[in-house]
Design goal:
The structure is a single chain. Helices cover about 70% and strands about 0% of the residues. With about 130 residues, the protein is mainly α. The chain has a single domain, classed as Ribonuclease iii, N-terminal Endonuclease Domain, Chain A. The radius of gyration is 14 Å and the shape is globular. The termini are far apart. The relative contact order is 0.21.
């Protein structure tokens, strides 16, 4: 499937699920057995502010490929009509761009690249 034909917000919608699932899996594999502790750890990675920091880290450190940068730009520039009250619009747009990237990679079935990026994100203390 040609990902250029998929609306960037649709890619972000999918990518949000992919990203959160992998973050949840990581913390479950750390043998955290209490749901409240799992939620607290996962939230640190899936909230918009953190996602914006992660995508900026990837961009600033030249860790993305050219096609990935284009997808990130599409996600960042997508016209959004609302955003969470506790997040400013710019932060929300950057978070959306990270989700768009994961949706794009999922559609491309590039599991290796998804795992590489997740490892980078989980390895970073920003």
């Amino acid at each position: 499937m040609n990902t250029d034909q998929i609306n960037s917000l649709v890619l972000a919608y999918l990518g949000d699920s992919v990203y959160e699932l992998l973050i949840r899996k990581y913390f479950i594999m750390q043998k955290i057995n209490k749901v409240n502790n799992l939620q607290n750890n996962v939230t640190k990675y899936v909230q918009a502010k953190s996602q914006a920091k992660f995508i900026n880290y990837l961009l600033e450190n030249n860790l993305l490929k050219d096609d990935e940068i284009e997808v990130v730009k599409r996600g960042r520039n997508a016209k959004v009509f609302s955003h969470p009250k506790n997040t400013d619009i710019l932060t929300y747009k950057y978070a959306t761009s990270l989700e768009c990237l994961f949706g794009y990679l999922y559609i491309k079935e590039d599991k290796n690249r998804i795992n590489e990026l997740i490892k980078i994100i989980l390895g970073e203390t920003i």
